From TrEMBL:
Belongs to the SCO1/2 family. Residues 41-201 form the Thioredoxin domain. This is SCO family protein. The lineage of its organism: Bacteria, Pseudomonadati, Pseudomonadota, Betaproteobacteria, Burkholderiales. It comes from Ottowia testudinis. GO terms for molecular function: metal ion binding. The keyword Signal applies.
């Protein structure tokens, strides 16, 4: 499975070169006065924080990533296309940001902790980018965290097994740990990089 993810990642990133699109090679940095392409949810009374164990069992919160922007995504390893697309887009977003890509931390919260064991999550993150952090909540923690972020997930039977239906928004936090944006799944890496670069360019208030 992980080998397949690596092939998918290489193919997706290679598609830019194959298509010869200028947008894949250069990020047109946002100018003063430009607006976000995603949904500006600055000041929203939800998505305030999380407190969840990572794949090594270490408890993580937003404070651990203070100073970086955070892209938070809910998904699961056996997701056939939506999650690999989201993570591949995150890889491409960091590439488009250039040196500033190091200031973006990707955090993946599994909605399938029963099957997404620590070993599985580590291998899955490594197939995309070893810097990505996977969090594995208990069922009770997952329920509470999903409610905090207004995220949806549900197990759907498929023959003798099941899959997970889930929302596909990516949440963006600024360097002070404040929820600022919800980016849609249908948006491109160029859109994501534009909004994140715009956030990075804004002066810190307070």
């Amino acid at each position: 499975m992980v080998q397949g993810r690596r092939r998918m990642l290489r193919a997706a990133l290679g598609a830019c070169a194959a298509a010869g699109l200028a947008a894949c090679d250069k990020l047109n940095l946002p100018q003063a006065g430009q607006s976000f392409r995603g949904i500006d949810i600055t000041g929203a009374p939800y998505g305030r924080d999380f407190k969840l164990p990572d794949a090594d069992g270490k408890e993580r919160t937003l404070a651990d990533f203070r100073g970086k922007l955070v892209l938070l995504y809910f998904g699961f390893v056996q997701c056939p296309d939506v999650c690999p697309t989201a993570l591949t887009r995150a890889v491409e977003t960091r590439r488009l940001l250039g040196a500033d890509g190091e200031r973006l931390q990707v955090v993946f919260i599994t909605v399938d902790p029963e099957r997404d064991t620590p070993e599985v999550l580590k291998a899955y993150m490594a197939a995309f980018d070893p810097s990505f952090v996977a969090l594995r909540p208990s069922p009770e923690q997952l329920k509470a965290t999903a409610a905090e972020f207004k995220a949806y997930y549900k197990a759907v039977p498929t023959g003798s097994s099941y899959t997970m239906d889930h929302s596909a928004l990516s949440y963006i936090f600024d360097a002070q740990g404040r929820l600022r944006l919800a980016l849609r799944h249908e948006q491109t890496a160029q859109d994501y990089a534009h909004d994140i670069a715009l956030l990075m360019s804004q002066k810190t208030a307070g």
